[in-house]
Amino acid sequence: MSNPKKDIRALSKEELRRFFEAHGDKAFRGNQVYEWLWNKAAKTFDNMTNLSKATREMLENNFVINHIAVDKMQRSIDGTIKNAIKLHDNLIVESVMIPSKNRTTACVSSQVGCSLDCNFCATAKLKRMRNLNADEIYDQVVEIDKQSKLYHNHRLSNIVFMGMGEPLLNYKNVISAIEKITSPEGLGMASKRITLSTVGIPKMIMKMADEQVKFNLAVSLHSAIDEVRSKLMPINDKNNLASLLESLQYWYEKTQRRITFEYVVFKNHNDRQVDINALIDYCKKIPSKVNLITYNTIGEEEFQTADKQVIQKYVKHLEQNGIVVNIRRSRGDDIDAACGQLANKMED
Ligand code: SAH
Catalytic site residue 283? Predict the structure, then answer.
């Protein structure tokens, strides 16, 4: 069912101010409503208690608030929570809350499904349905902030754009959501606590560098050999490692912030010494660190996590070459909430 009323959160603060002026009210009313919509995350106009009844009705007649709803929630034995989020048009995306000792990380989605065909990723099996709007991304963060307070007594501390979708293919809305997340009129979180993860689209990385964005950049590398990377991630055919590197060097020049490479070590794909050497050579060309991710199975025979010894070998050689490396512990894999397992498979 299509709704003719406009989503009020598609309006900027300035547009809201002008709307009120055009309706014979004070522009300042726009600021009040903006604060309700973003900072207080109001879900209905009736919640906006400092507005007159007439104003609330007027808003009701003109707009909707397309808020998300947590449709289902699953908790892992390690405390990780996976949410199935229902959007206003009944499509579903997933978000994950990952608690650790002193912090909570929100892993949020940027698209419904994904248009890229990374062969090892469960989300890739869902075709891309649509981009998420800025408010739909923002709402995922608000919900996880609430869950963090409820279950862990502290606020959300970090955000990673590592859920469903490719954030750089929904650039405008992702940037607009981040603006709201970091603004004191929104959640007031620090940009340095936000990480955007991408398959690596050079054109967009350069655009972000030009715009001097303040958040961190992670790139899903998985191989530093074109032939191998193209097999894992077909996007590498058109955006090869050399062009990716060029864009990352540009990013570093402009931002002075080092990049994180995400790297899954797969059995029989990138577990040879030549793979390790290629990664070392690549990292030496750009200030970076490496997060080694153990592979989370998605039921495809072809992809399996490499032996522990191979991962240790990666660590040893990277460290010997002065490259910072972490092994990323996978969280929530018992409920298919771990990296690459988000595929709208919730248990009833
Ligand atoms: N499209 C963006 C955002 C998704 S982030 C990107 O690709 O970076 C999800 C991360 O998990 C990526 O690094 C992705 O390569 C990795 N991933 C995908 N499937 C995985 C799996 N089954 N096991 C472990 N990591 C996986």
Answer: no
Q: What beta strand segments (E) does the chain contain?
A: 6-7, 63-64, 69-75, 81-86, 92-99, 104-107, 111-112, 130-131, 158-161, 194-198, 216-220, 259-264, 288-293, 324-328
Query: Which residue is catalytic, options 107, 118, 121, 339?
Result: 339
Task: For residue 188, give every residue at least 6 positions away whose Cβ sits within 8 Å of its Cβ, in sequence order, or none.
Answer: 182
Cα(198) to centroid of ligand 1, in Å? 9
Per-residue pLDDT of 43-57, as tens digits, reads 999 999 999 999 999
Q: What is the CB < 6 Å shell around ligand 1?
A: 118, 120-121, 162, 166, 197-199, 220, 262, 264, 293, 295-296, 298, 339-341
pLDDT in tens, 284-328: 999 999 999 988 888 778 899 999 999 999 999 999 999 999 998
Q: At what angle do helices 241-255 and 202-210 cross, to 10 degrees?
A: 10
User: Mean pLDDT throughout 193-202?
Assistant: 98
Domain 6-64 has CATH 1.10.150.530: yes
User: Active site includes 302?
Assistant: no
pLDDT of residue 346: 58
% pLDDT > 70, the chain: 96
Q: Calculate how far, in angstroms, residue 37's C-alpha sits from the geometric centre of ligand 1.
A: 32
Domain boundaries, the chain: 6-64, 69-335
Q: Which fold has domain 69-335?
A: TIM Barrel (3.20.20)
- Rounded distance, CA 109 to CA 86, Å? 12
**Could you tell me the pTM of the whole model?**
0.93
